[in-house]
Structure formats: C-alpha cells, structure tokens
Amino acid sequence: MLKALIVILMLALVASLGSGFYYLMLDQGDKTKRRTFHSLGVRLTLAVTLMGLIIYGVASGQLGHRNPWDGGPIPMSGKAPEKE
Predict the structure, then answer these.
(1) What pTM does this model have?
(2) What separation in angstroms does the CA of 30 have from each of 12, 14, 37, 38, 58?
(3) Which of 4, 50, 68, 84 shows the smallest number of beta carbons within 10 Å?
C-alpha cells in the first residue's frame, strides 16, 4: 500500500511539472495570472508529502534494501581449516 502511494505521488509530481510548464508557456509572463505559481505550490506540497512517506516507510521498516552484500558475514561451520 505504501509503495503504491509513493508511485502515485511520483506520477502526480510529473503531472504537476507538466502543468506548470504548460501554464508558463500559455501565460507568457502575464502578472495577473498566477497559475504557474500555484502549480509550484502543488508540486512543493507533493514533494514534501512524498519525502514524508519515504521517511516513514524507512523508519517503520516497510521500505528498505535487501542487498546480498548487506547480510553480514557468512558463518563458518565451526571447524578450523585443515593444514597440510
């Protein structure tokens, strides 16, 4: 569930970025229209929410890494190596 929310927020960030670019090109610096500014506010809110979700996921253990080299040393069988 958490990973799905993260993906949805990332897609919403990309959509907000696209809408901001669209409004920037459409308004061409018109001071009375603040749609680009509002798009930036939405994008900032989405980014802060996304960072909060990722921090929560790592802190709760729902998100993490499962790399084989992070597992620690492989335990030995308890026998000493034989010398010839």
Answers:
(1) 0.69
(2) 26, 24, 12, 14, 43
(3) 84
Q: Please give the Cα distance from 42 to 40 (Å, whole number).
A: 5
Return the CA Rg of the chain. Answer: 24
Closest CA to 1 of 67, 47, 63, 65: 63
Per the structure, the count of domains in the chain is 1
Residue 28 inside a domain? The answer is yes
Q: Which domain holds residue 9?
A: 2-63
Q: Classify residue 69: in a domain, yes or no.
A: no
pLDDT digits (tens, 9 = 90+) for 24-81: 888 887 778 888 888 889 999 999 999 999 999 989 888 887 776 666 666 666 566 6
**Is residue 68 included in any domain, yes or no?**
no
How far is CA 2 from each of CA 31, 36, 57, 66, 82, rounded to the nearest angstrom? 40, 30, 7, 17, 51
